[in-house]
Amino acid sequence: MESNRNLMRSFVRLMRPSQWIKNGFVLMPLIFSGRMFVPQEAFLAAGATIGFCLASSVTYIINDYMDRERDRIHPLKRDRPLASGAISPAIAFMFAGMLVLGILITSRCFGLSLSILWIFAAYTLLNLIYSWKLKNLVIIDVLSVAFGFLLRVFAGGVSVDVQLSSWLLLCTFSIATLLVLGKRRHEVISLGDEAFTHRAVLKSYSIGFIDQLLQTVTTSTFIFYCLYAVLGKSGDMRSDRMMISVPFVAYGIFRYIYLIYHMKMGGAPTDLLLKDYPLMASVTLWLICCISVIYL
User: Fold this and answer.
1) What are the domain boundaries of the chain?
2) Is the distance from CB of 295 to CB of 37 less than 8 angstroms?
3) What is the DSSP secondary-structure string of 137-160?
């Protein structure tokens, strides 16, 4: 009985549900289009989000399989089910196949368009290529992960049939790049001389180089959002009202920079969001502020 419970826990960990928070980006087009309270469109966006959660879990399984040998020398990743041997590769791939079936069933039940399935396929293909080659190419590895966030937003836009704002895409890509660079910085610091043995591309990154990139992306993220707040348009609201959300964005960015520079964190951005209460509060208040501005 205990072994069955342990196996179930391993399957759950293999799916990495804590990472599903990233798929909140799928809901952004729904929220910022002013259609969040339209039942049919909210239903479609929910289906796209669930589908993306399953698709991302499939890619995590593939990535864990390809990285299992390197993960065994990582202080945290060595406990992952495939790296630790809790689940065999054959069983993991059978489980991934079940998740793919779950994506098809979800798409059918929620009435998602064929275009959504193509986006799921593109996301999976991107991650396959990333695990095979792109993760070993300096800078390209960061941009590839950031592009995955754009695909989430595209999925959300297609699901509710809205034209995506260029500002939303710019802000998404910029904040995603910021999060990935913070993770790379943490890996270089925490793994030290053994960093390149875990991730070969880390030998091409130095702290100084990453810091320069972080300065650039931090600035662009804040500027893009400020421009969106002034020039963008969400639903039927006047664009200048969104300016009241800028302080929450500023605090969230500055808090993240504080955590990666002074607290030496950032290895798992989703964990930071879930465990650092000031950061969680800033994101929550920002979301409440945006919904209030758009819908009230």
Assistant:
1) 1-162, 165-296
2) yes
3) STTHHHHHHHHHHHHHHHHHHHHH
For the record, the structure tokens of 158 come out as: 């297609």
Inter-CA distances, 142 with 7, 26, 120, 267, Å: 33, 20, 20, 14
Q: Any idea which architecture 1-162 has in CATH? A: Orthogonal Bundle (1.10)
Contact present, 151 and 122 (Cβ < 8 Å): yes
* Segment 96-120, tens digit of pLDDT: 999 999 999 999 999 999 999 999 9
**Tokens 């589908």 identify what position?**
51
Q: CB–CB of 279/252 below 8 Å?
A: yes
Q: What is the C-alpha radius of gyration for the chain, rounded to an integer number of angstroms?
A: 19
pLDDT for 237: 52
Both tokens of 44, joined, read 């479609």
Helices and strands: H and E segment counts in the chain: 13, 0
What are the CB-based long-range contacts (under 8 Å, 24+) for 97-105?
A: 99/15, 99/54, 99/55, 99/57, 99/58, 99/61, 100/54, 100/58, 102/54, 103/51, 103/54, 103/55, 103/58
3-state percent breakdown (helix, strand, coil) of the chain, nearest 5: 85, 0, 15
